[in-house]
Design brief:
The protein is 62% helix and 8% strand. The protein is mostly helical. It has a domain of 47 residues.
């Protein structure tokens, strides 16, 4: 399977254009968009192998889970920073 470097995809009368934001990583929405376009553009006489499709869906699920974990860890880090700052303030006023 070959994926060419394009910046726009046309699907049933609508055009989706993506622009480079300087980021080298793709997000969850980008992955889902690529998967959807791939399914729309595949040859009906030579569809994507089931194992390959399942692998892509597993990657999508892993991406969603990792995004959730990252968000949770960011929230925990923020709360720990506040707790550390409060403890430092309490120690400086106690002395």
């Amino acid at each position: 399977m070959t994926i060419s470097a394009t910046t726009s995809a046309t699907t049933t009368g609508t055009t989706t254009t993506s622009s480079s934001t300087g980021s080298s990583s793709l997000g969850q929405a980008d992955f889902l968009r690529l998967l959807t376009v791939q399914m729309e553009q595949q040859d009906p006489f030579d569809p994507v192998d089931n194992k390959e499709m399942l692998a892509q869906m597993a990657q999508f699920s892993s991406l969603a889970a990792m995004t959730d974990v990252s968000t949770t860890l960011d929230q925990i880090s923020g709360k720990l920073d506040l707790l550390t700052a409060a403890a430092a303030a309490a120690n400086s006023t106690a002395e």
